[in-house]
Amino acid sequence: MMLAAAPAQLQARTAAPGKARPKPASRRREVKVGGRRVKTIDVHAHCVIPEALALLGKRLDDQRGPGIGEVGERRIREMDEQGIDMEALSINPQWYRAERDLVTQVVKIQNERLAEFCATYPDRFVAFASVALQYPDLAVQQLVDGVKRLGLRGAAVGASVAGKEFSDPMFHPFWAKAEELGVLIFIHPQSTPDLAPRLKGNGWLANTIGNPLDTTVALGHLVFDGVLERFPKLKLVAAHGGGYVAHYPARMDHVWGARADARTVLKNTPRRSLAKVYFDTIVFDRVQLEHLVKLWGADHVLAGTDYPYDMGMYDPRGFVGGAALTAADKAKILGLNAARLLKVRVPAASKAGRARARR
Ligand SMILES: [Zn+2]
After folding, report:
1. Span from the CA of 45 to the centroid of ligand 1 (angstroms)
2. What's the sign of the alpha-carbon dihedral 350, 355, 357, 358?
3. Rounded distance, CA 305 to CA 324, Å?
4. Ligand 1 centroid – CA 2 distance (Å)
5. What is the pLDDT of residues 34-88, one digit of tens each?
6. What is the mean pLDDT of the chain?
7. How far is the CA of 43 from the centre of ligand 1 (A)?
8. What Cα–Cα distance (Å) separates residue 206 from each residue in 195, 203, 211, 212?
9. 305 C-alpha to center of ligand 1: Å?
């Protein structure tokens, strides 16, 4: 039995000055792997800020996902039930076509609110900054401000920007800054609207197929246009197990070997570039999870839930715990990798009591 859950009575947390003091939550499922307490970190957890949505002319009621507009007691209760110690909050970009003044305001509100959530519940949330990538110079400023002033741990981006691919040289300054800061960039798809006529009909194919495809196309450009070679220390985590390409890099390697026009920029095999990327665990099948680990190593796989969507997986502990992986690899996937990448302090002691005592 590699995993065991032990309930822990949570203590009331110290709120940031001037903030309402959160009430004690219910009982949290603690995750243990091989007898050791593992701080479980969810790198794929959505939220929205209603005030920022309103500026964009959108309504909270039109956003999918129950509770997506709330970062507080309800979410913490659900995290406790799921055995999630900490979420890395992100907001899916709905602002890539907004003009500069508006998007400046939207991103400012979002990043400041995200920072407030993290300050109010410092052991439950970290966050990815929002950035206005359609104005790369602005996005660079927002990333620096988010990380240095607000303590955010990276940035969340889509899979393309208003029709521009991530490998466009206009985005190089952003990748360079992310690399320099050593922060994690979360790539989350926004379907493939160009394929809408083919993805209509049964099966919600715009999401079922369109989302992993969107991520796959993004990674394809980042690889073959040499972005991952140009910025070798850039840290990207790709949603939904990285889409299809994470499981099928061999076709990329083949074209690189077979055709000179696939090697115009890329110096080494596509697989060498992909090996720098991190992937979340939202793949629904343990064989797929094991395949990710086999291809890219346990160091490159991070637990995620896709909270609060109906396409989510809400038991990473059970999912990862039941996979044919070593206890050490499970601990990395459930939290140690994310803690390292997101600069989250993890308890040095394996004793749950000592860990709780520090909260
Ligand atoms: Zn998602």
Report:
1. 7
2. positive
3. 20
4. 28
5. 788 899 999 999 999 999 999 999 999 999 999 999 999 999 999 999 999 999 9
6. 91
7. 10
8. 8, 8, 7, 10
9. 8
Domains of the chain: 41-341 (3.20.20.140)
Pairing status of strand 3-9 against strand 27-33: antiparallel
260 contact partners, CB below 8 Å, separation of at least 6: none
Whether the upstream peptide bond of residue 308 has omega within 30° of 0, thus cis, is yes
> Who surrounds ion ligand 1 at CB < 5 A?
306
- The residue to which tokens 């570039």 are assigned: 273
pTM, to two decimals: 0.90
Q: Determine the length of the chain.
A: 359
CA-based max dimension of the chain: 63
Assigned token pair, 152: 């955010």
Residue whose C-alpha is closest to residue 236's, from 281, 270, 188, 268: 188
* Tokens describing residue 22: 């959160």
Buried b (16+ CB within 10 A) or exposed e, 196-230: eeebeeeeebbbebbbbbbbbbbbbbbbbbbbbbb
